[in-house]
Model the fold of this input.
Amino acid sequence: MRDRTHNDPSFKVAAIVDDAIAELLLLGTENRDQAVKLMACQAIVRVNGPKVIAEIADFAESFIERDAGGPEHA
Done:
């Protein structure tokens, strides 16, 4: 767990997400990626605007493009 005692919101959010991943793993989620996938799906269904969903999709897709040459794609 990351320290949440500082004032940096991005570090606080990262700590909350890390804790949620750990909780899902303790509940029996298969692995870290599955836990993150569950959280991402739950977050997306809570978004009200289609424009925001499109922005999220574009952001996610940028990771695929960036990592296309990584070892798991060889």
